[in-house]
Specification:
Largest sheet: 2 strands, antiparallel
Order of helices and strands: HHHEEH
CATH class: Mainly Alpha
Number of helices: 4
Helix content: 40-55%
Strand order of the largest sheet: 1-2
């Protein structure tokens, strides 16, 4: 991950706000459109840091058209594993 400027470091509250917004609008918006849908204002550079973190942590993917997709589903994974699916 890139070295973050102190003025661009998101708070946990900001990360959670972005996560919830992505979950609500998954597969509907690109970066800029999603940023405009956030319930509170956030600097765009800070927002990009959050997106970078979420992508690197495996919670979102951004497709080739730039659409943001929420992929993190721990409950779904638990359900699949409880049905006897074996992992490598």
């Amino acid at each position: 991950m890139k070295q973050m400027n102190v003025s661009r470091s998101p708070t946990l509250e900001s990360v959670i706000m972005v996560e919830k917004t992505i979950q609500k609008y998954t597969q509907e918006c690109g970066k800029y459109q999603l940023w405009k849908k956030l319930p509170r204002k956030m600097m765009y550079q800070t927002y990009l840091v959050v997106l970078d973190y979420l992508e690197k942590s495996g919670k979102i993917i951004i497709d080739k058209e730039g659409v943001i997709i929420w992929i993190y589903d721990p409950e779904g994974i638990k359900k699949i594993l409880s049905q006897g699916v074996k992992l490598r």
